[in-house]
Amino acid sequence: MQIQENVALAPLTTLGVGGPARYFAEARSEADIREAVAFAKSHGLSLFVLGGGSNLLVADSGFPGLVLKIGIRGISQYSEGRLELFDSAAGEDWDALVERTVNANCAGLECLSGIPGTVGGTPVQNVGAYGQDVSETISAVRALDLNSSEIVELSRDDCLFTYRSSRFNGIDRGRFIITRVIFSLHPGAEPKLEYADLRKFFAEREDRPSLQETRDAVRQIRRSKAMLIVEGDEDARSAGSFFKNPVIDLAQYESIVSEAAEGGVTVPKYPAGTGKVKVPAAWLVEQSGLHKGFALGPVGISRKHALAIVNRGGAMAADIVALKERIQASVRDRFNIQLQPEPVFLGFE
Description:
Blueprint: E1 4-8, E2 20-27, H1 30-42, E3 47-50, E4 56-58, E5 63-70, E6 75-80, E7 83-89, H2 94-103, E8 106-107, E9 128-129, E10 132-133, E11 138-145, E12 150-155, E13 176-187, H3 196-201, H4 211-224, E14 247-249, H5 250-261, E15 270-271, E16 276-278, H6 281-287, E17 295-296, E18 299-301, E19 309-311, H7 317-335, E20 344-346
Parallel strand pairs: 2-5, 3-5, 4-20
Antiparallel strand pairs: 1-2, 6-7, 7-13, 8-13, 9-10, 11-12, 11-13, 14-16, 15-16, 17-18, 18-19
């Protein structure tokens, strides 16, 4: 494994901004990962694990430690009872894995089509979209435990999944380096069509769409919202949804509903457990007065999706942060809700 110096990180992210990594390496095996960890320890360096760069904002000053890109590849498929298991290396392209499961007529990941990034990043924030979360199908995660220096296998329950969260970005942030993820899927099962956009897409269908038709629909919907990476589309040069959908208590929600009713506006919501509801962050952003297409210098809000902050060309990380803070302040002033960003911020103090 080669340790490189002063490697540009911007080209390795979907936002395309940020400075260099002081040191950089790509691991193609678990042995490479151990070697990189040893290098970081011996040189007193912070270590950051990079996947597909789709959920990442790198500071303009870069990162003074070692960036380790996970390039481990390989997928195996086997049956276990009524389930079909897909054991994927962390460095595999996520959408390629989803495509493979759909081609095998196995349900469970079809609504997660078109999401950029690699397999290893999906358990970290419990990636989800269009009514599915990876936590529904992950059966195990293989990882290097930096506390014990041992390779461990964590069950679904061990991962402590919640909405857009897990032990990997929560209580044990930085402890594990994921090397493989095992998904348990249902062969021959029907697609999940709970999300409103999907139900609307197939509203005129009398029969149930196939897994492939559902995957195609998800990708088409994502593209219409600039949530599919398309070369040449500046509205797709983003980190996806920049903010999490906030979960609030019913009393706060009713207060928002009461105020919105005066203007004849309906407040959307989704269930989020006893006494809680989840309100779409995109709705909050637009109702606070910042609409699709809003620009602030070289950055802006996507013309197709109110949650995507896009680099319109020549942006710096500081420009992204300035717009993030502008959006947060607008929503906070209007609704007394603090939006929480989804991307990882690397190299910021």
